[in-house]
Amino acid sequence: MPIYYNQQEKSFKLRANNTDYMMKIVDDGYLAHIYYGNKLPDEDLEYLLRFDESPFTPATNDRDKSSFMDTLPMEYPCFGIGDYRESAFKILDEAGMSTCDLRYVSHKIYRGKPQLEGLPATFATETSPADTLEITMVDKPAGLEVVLIYTAFQKLDAITRSVIVKNTGDKPCTLTRVLSACVEFDEDTYDMITLNGSWARERHIERCRLHIGKQMIDSVRGESSHQNNPFTALCTHNADEDNGEVFGFNFVYSGNFISEAEVTQHKKTRYLMGINPMDFSWLLEPGESFIAPEVVMVHSDKGLGKMSRTFHDLYRNNLIRGEYKDKRRPILINNWEATYFNFDTEKLISIAKEASKLGIEMLVMDDGWFGHRDADNSSLGDWFVYEKKLKGGLKYLVDEVNKLGIKFGIWFEPEMVSPDSELFKVHPEWAIQVKGRELTLCREQYVLDYSRKDVRDYVFGMMKNILDSANIEYIKWDMNRQLTEVGSNALPANRQRELWHRYVLGVYELMDRITTEYPYILLENCSGGGARFDPGMLYYSPQIWCSDDTDAIERLKIQHGTSMCYPCSAMGAHVSDCPNHTVGRNTPFKTRGHVAMVGTFGYELDVTRIPQEDRDMIPAQIEEFNKYNTLVRTGDHYRIGNTFEDITWDAWMFVAKDKSKALFEFVQILGRPNERSRRIKLKGLDPDAYYYEESNPDVKLSGAALMNAGINIAKQWGVDDLYGDFRSKILHYIKV
Fold this sequence. Notes:
Elements: E1 3-6, E2 11-16, E3 19-25, E4 31-38, H1 65-71, E5 89-92, E6 103-111, E7 130-139, E8 144-153, E9 158-167, E10 173-185, E11 190-196, E12 204-209, E13 213-219, E14 228-236, E15 246-252, E16 257-263, E17 269-275, E18 282-284, E19 289-300, H2 303-318, E20 332-334, H3 336-339, H4 345-358, E21 362-365, H5 393-403, E22 407-412, E23 416-417, H6 422-426, E24 446-447, H7 453-469, E25 474-477, H8 499-517, E26 522-525, H9 535-538, E27 543-545, H10 552-562, E28 571-572, E29 575-576, H11 589-596, E30 602-604, H12 612-634, E31 636-639, E32 649-655, E33 661-668, E34 678-680, E35 690-693, E36 696-702, H13 703-708, E37 711-713, E38 727-735
Parallel strand pairs: 20-21, 20-30, 21-22, 22-25, 25-26, 26-27, 27-28, 29-30
Antiparallel strand pairs: 1-2, 2-3, 3-4, 5-10, 6-7, 7-8, 8-9, 9-19, 10-17, 10-18, 11-12, 11-14, 13-16, 14-15, 15-19, 16-17, 23-24, 31-32, 32-33, 33-38, 34-37, 35-36, 35-38
């Protein structure tokens, strides 16, 4: 078993593949962090804790406790007992006091991994096993029991952490800070990498050096957000794609979060991740429990690329579930950028007819099919068919589309309500609001209070009526605004600050009901594009709309950043019309296809109106996608180019697990005059094997040569068409 407890030394070691994580119970029952990194021999590393060093860290049993608390590398630090660094846990007891003092009382080690009730989380499988350590800490005066849950995956350099807080006393207690993970690093010589941006510019890479004080990203928007993704990597200054040590952290949660690194007075680094404590509290009555979401921790000694591939493997095999977990997703065409709100039954059938001739497998009807919705200022919450547009009803439309050999999908925005809707007129109290204050409109809509069971039941019933009425095989679940005036008409005053978290739990519950009731339906998440691209959503939907920016060139940065911790097979990516609706750019149809092929692949355009030349390319594009999808979906991903550093080109690879095949994709963003071919080194191949490129089988080169010497990518007039801006090329390497 990869989790060990040394009774004599009172130390724990978790081994996840080639990674070790070590803790020790020190004097008085405090749990100290010792080590996190490459695996080590079994030996006592207590000396790393510096019990005998001065100043202000007196020896065991003869010490100034406050100084001891402020320097000890704590595994789960509390507030109020002399540790002046950022805490992971804070309370407000019945007397109004915030001090908490957690001490070790027991532990247990077992095979497998527990579920977290009501929350998404990774899981163990027979082919990807895991072992779990639960450490129980107690604060006797507060009557609190805190269970620290660690799971180590045997075949991956991945460890997960979560926390369960139980009120074992006879008095209520309010939790004001319950983070999920804390890791102490003995140096400050790290860079902090985060994924930041905005709508249509999600998950751009930001890298900065740590400095004295606190550096953080967070969300207080009620969702993981466009602006900051719940991912952080701490890495050595020299770390790049292939070299250096990296510690990656990803929060399996879709609401408010905090990710913070604090460099302390002694130039040590404390890293914390969990639910954002801003405006958070949770009343814990006697006998009640609170479960904190899971943090995934990944260690790499070979750069960012290895970290990413570990995340990808973990999420593909141990997070994503359902019928489409290991399947190629249907190639769909979505009518949003094709028609926006201006469509009817006839128009959708015309798109489906043309799409069926071209090999497209599914038509998705986007926003505008319900209530009386002709713009984004009405009808949300009224999930019944807009008969003016869909003459003959939904079933008629779906049946006609199905007759063409095309599957049918539909768009919902079930968390929202419009002021003019029938639902809001009847139940204005169902919107999130603060009594006596004006409700803030955003995109002409309010947010439904998903902390309420009656709201969730009503919405589920409306969705069920639609899903049962026709052969619907796909849902695009959208969420187009963030939370304001966060209050609930159904919660008492002392529980109002629970709404942020209860809202997310309500969303998870409804998604779970939908996917349980309709397991054959492919659920794709969306939130104004990519505002909830997080592992919490991946648990319910195997793919997430990556961004509303469908421009292929803009997508290079978005998809590059997203791949830092999320598998490419989860990225909703489409070929869109040109000039692109977001940036007005014209990009060749071929390039748009190659960039979209990195993800789930589909079309976001009107196939009845695009140029015939583009239309004629679709069957070959689809054939190409089908040919390489297994490799893209299951292979190892290697980033080669980096448009954050060089805006003129980009490149990446997918390599089969057995290294028998590899797909190399290249995009020339900007053409340059008088330029020789680019020399690009491939990655991930077998150095001792020989490969040939499929279009040139007579030339065989060693994996060593391809990776160390590289290949030449030339600007050519004619066949390869790398002459000009926004051009692309793919190469398929096959092992001899």
